[in-house]
Design goal:
The protein is of the alpha/beta class. It contains 8 helices and 12 strands. The protein has helices at residues 17-25, 45-53, 55-71, 89-105, 132-138, 162-175, 207-217, 249-269, and strands at residues 4-5, 11-12, 31-35, 76-80, 109-114, 141-144, 181-183, 188-193, 203-206, 222-224, 229-235, 241-245. The strands form 3 sheets. Strands 3-4-5-6-7 form a 5-stranded parallel sheet, covered by helices on one side. Strands 9-8-12-11-10 form a 5-stranded antiparallel sheet, with helices on one face. Strands 1-2 form a two-stranded antiparallel ribbon. Strand 6, helix 6 and strand 7 (181-183) form a beta-alpha-beta unit. The chain is globular. The two termini are 36 Å apart.
Amino acid sequence: FSTHARPDGSLIPLNDTALIGMARRARVAPMMVVTNMGEDGGFNSDLAHPILTDQDVQKNYIQNVMQTLKSKNYLGLDVDFEYVFPDDREAYNAFLKKISEKLHAGGYTLTTALAPKKSDDQRGLLYTAHDYALHGEISDHVIIMTYEWGYTRGPAMAVAPLDQVKEVLEYAASVIPSGKILMGIPNYGYDWTLPFEKGTSARSLSNMEAVELAHGIGVSIEYDAESRSPYFTYYDEDKKRHEVWFGDARSIRASLALVHCCQVLASRCG
């Protein structure tokens, strides 16, 4: 889904020409997504560092991005840099300011992806370098990654618990114009084998696959009132207990209701 970079600022080609053409014909805006993903498919702090701090690499990178936007007929750019070193926060801000100016001068839009923070001083490799106020100031839209509380290598829990999502959106709406905020809603869930052991991985599945699994096994789907998320448990053929959390119409409806709530909050904040 994204165009990856090499440490020298060159880009690894993405076979997306057919998809861009389909999007344009359907009057859907194709967005070029850039990430600091390495060749192993994971986000790489060391890959982002030279792009943000080495001016020669950065110049090469921005030039390649701008050329790709034009040659492939994209409408805008989505910058999804994750796990940026905390000490690179200001360098990331400066990079975004620079590329924002070039994008807007060329008639392109800028969207950025933000980790789910509840305050500016929230610390951690995923959070520190993401400056909500700065992103809200220079970006046309921001995508808040309001998901992955329940994740592949973590303990069994809701992927996007509503109480947690609400706190993140309330903070976001207090420092970013509400019209720029896009709330992420997961279309997937996880199947954990219990008891959870550190280092193990849950199996990912779509929301529909989760429903089909429950139906096929013949177990009832429960609903957690606090997280507003469906879940169920079952035993496999080896008599190991599983716990599955996912999303359904009820959880999505509850998430969408937060949009109005945060718009009201933003209007009160002026």
